[in-house]
Write a structure and sequence with these properties.
six-stranded antiparallel beta sheet, Phytanoyl-CoA dioxygenase, 17% strand, iron ion binding, three-stranded antiparallel beta sheet, 2-oxoglutarate-dependent dioxygenase activity, alpha+beta, Jelly Rolls, Phytyl_CoA_dOase-like, 295 residues, globular
Length: 295
């Protein structure tokens, strides 16, 4: 199992917390080293190549790959689950009783024909955005987006966001998704280099733009939430696979590991037996001023 050297754990800063609360996202530069980029990019492009073969997973009509369950698909990506520079934003915001409930890898090569108009703007979470009653709705989850290709210029399928929209339940839009409609006022295409990270609140209104450039867009996305929220990823078979033995305890927790007889379970009633709680406690990072980090 791939394990990559990474810096000592540290919490997100107060300034980052203020910015995240204001904008609904953070762009963090240079999170991954060159070797980490190479490991992840090689694995994902390998999956892309296999998906395009006869009998493979299959590509979309534009030749792109959007495949769920990132680590189940590619165990080589396990180091991204708890990469200290990126993962600190998860436990700093959500605390220690978390897991990955949704993840995917994406490869979007150049599109050669203009695509029909389609309103791609959305908040993550699907039915959460209709069935939760509060205004604004609760955050529920935070997502990490690792960039593994050069999207330092717009027009490369850039992740597009509406800053500050995470506390807005509804975004004015077309009567149906196929009706031509301008992007929201203030929309921003995020530019990033390989190894950069975007951390975002699932409520942030966002969209993927089309890639008409010759640069293939490659990324890996991990959504984290509390363990009492059911997952979408297919990880049920992991404990029986040889690769599972190579994951560290925190990675196992993030992939749904619980109920090992020590008392740990998804409701978090036994923090002392929860791997991430122990990892944070060992490092003196349980800050009682943050509700999610209180035992």
């Amino acid at each position: 199992m791939t394990q990559v050297e990474a810096p000592v754990w540290a919490p997100m800063t107060d300034d980052e917390r203020v910015q995240f609360d204001r904008d609904g996202f953070l762009v963090v530069r240079g999170v991954l080293s060159d070797s980490e980029i190479e490991i992840a990019r090689t694995a994902i492009l390998g999956a892309f190549e296999r998906a395009g073969r006869p009998g493979g997973h299959g590509l979309t009509g534009t030749g792109s790959l959007h495949q769920l369950s990132a680590v189940t698909t590619l165990p080589e990506l396990a180091f991204l689950l708890d990469h200290p520079i990126a993962f600190k934003y998860i436990w700093s915001l959500l605390g220690w009783n978390v897991h990955v409930y949704h993840s995917h890898i994406d490869v979007h090569p150049q599109i050669h024909e203009k695509q029909k108009d389609w309103w791609h703007w959305h908040q993550d979470g699907g039915r959460q955005n209709r069935e939760l009653e509060t205004d604004p709705r609760p955050a529920m989850s935070v997502k990490l987006a690792y960039w593994l290709s050069d999207v330092s210029e717009t027009g490369r399928g850039n992740f597009t966001v509406l800053p500050g929209s995470h506390k807005t339940n509804w975004l004015p839009g077309p009567p149906s998704r196929g009706v031509p409609w301008p992007p929201p006022e203030g929309a921003l295409q995020i530019t990033a280099s390989p190894g950069d990270l975007v951390v975002f609140d699932r409520r942030l209104w966002h969209a993927r733009s089309d890639n008409y450039s010759p640069v293939t867009r490659v990324g890996a996305f991990f959504g984290y939430t509390w363990r009492w929220i059911a997952g979408r990823d297919d990880v049920a078979g992991l404990p029986g696979r040889p690769e599972w033995s190579g994951f560290n305890p925190v990675q196992r927790q993030l992939l749904g590991g619980a109920g090992d007889g020590s008392g740990d379970h998804a409701w978090g009633h036994y923090p002392e037996t929860t791997p991430l709680y122990g990892a944070l406690k060992e490092r003196g990072l349980l800050d009682s001023s943050i509700p999610a980090l209180i035992p």
